[in-house]
Amino acid sequence: MKTRDKIVFAALNLFNEHGERNITTNHIAAHIDISPGNLYYHFRNKQEIVREIFALYSNELLERFSPIHGQQESLVLLKHYLDSIFKLMWKYRFFYANLPEILQRDEQLHEEYILVQEKLQTNLVNIMRSFVDLELLAVEEHEMKPLVTTLHMIASSWLGYRSAMSQKTHITEQIIHQGMLQMIAVVKPKATPQGLEQLQLLEDGVKAIHA
């Protein structure tokens, strides 16, 4: 692995474990046993590393939440998107946990974030339409954008909300699974009988992980 990539992945691990605000470039350099000067050869400051991580996150986000064409079993599709929510929230949990703070101090990153999220919202509406076509959801066209916005808000703010509701919240897989259950609860009232059955299977699967 190239040194630049080692820096990025070391930073991601340290940010997730200790919080981005608590990690310096010296911590990152020491973690992979390189000199601070070597790190600064690749990145001028920590913020550039955060931007690089965001680029990885954005590519993965748009790839995972692109409409899937062709014949797919409905439960497989639902599970694919639910698994994607979990994997992204867990892999980039430092970003979800401190999103407003990270964006407020970097105008360029904030602009990039908005552009990516606008693309994501378009993709999510198209995914919602495919679930309507599969007769999993009964959602009118004018209801799709508000429903997608609600789901998007839960996903992007869940970890921040949980941190705010407890003085000692440490992000765990269980907390992320609770956020997934919250999203399922929002979708359930719009589900068809077939969709409700599939959502219940997914909900039971998530709950069983921590039973």
UniProtKB/TrEMBL annotation:
What PROSITE patterns does the annotation carry?
A: HTH_TETR_2 (PS50977)
Does this UniProt record's set of keywords contain DNA-binding? Answer: yes
Does the record's keyword annotation contain Cell membrane?
Answer: no
User: Cross-referenced InterPro entries, in alphabetical order?
Assistant: Homeodomain-like_sf (IPR009057), HTH-type_Tx_Regulator (IPR050624), HTH_TetR (IPR001647), TetR (IPR025722)
Q: Write down the DNA-binding region ranges.
A: 24-43
Q: Which keywords, in A-to-Z order, does the entry hold?
A: DNA-binding
User: SUPFAM superfamilies recorded for this chain?
Assistant: Homeodomain-like
- UniProt protein name: Biofilm operon icaADBC HTH-type negative transcriptional regulator IcaR
Give the organism the record lists: Vibrio aquimaris
This protein's gene is called icaR
